Amino acid sequence: ILSNGHELIVDALNKIQSLTEVDLAVTWADFPGTLSEIASHSEILEMKDDILKKSDTLSQIDQVKVGMLVQSKLKEKNLKVELNILDSLSAISVDIKTHEVMNDQMITNSAFLIDRNKKENFEQVIDQLDEEYKGMLNFKLVGPLPCYSFYTIEMKKLNPEHITQA
User: What is the pTM of this model?
Assistant: First the structure.
């Protein structure tokens, strides 16, 4: 494996020699407050008013409808904030990978490939974002890390019979 893949492995190692990965998870600092803010959105208030005009209480189905609209507005807000964060950090990043978020409170779960010498600049941008959002967000940085979100080598043992059949 090493002799056949030597050139590929050395090439990958040379590419990442001066690079490192920094992972960033961002969540709402006051998630219940964020949900309350979203619940006061005009479209949601109108939906509730329309429902309450027909009945004094919200049925389970009505609650689900309102909840789905709140979730939709939260996703829109999360996406807007995530795009701002990614855009702010893209100028000092070689590459960015977004990973799946764990829950509705998490705005982004991303990996950034940066030059080792720019780690301090990266952290300064995070500080600027924290000021911009006035402490409404929690930023969790993990790194420096190996560049595993960006470079991996996968090896598989092939069955000669399957190759012959193919």
Answer: 0.78
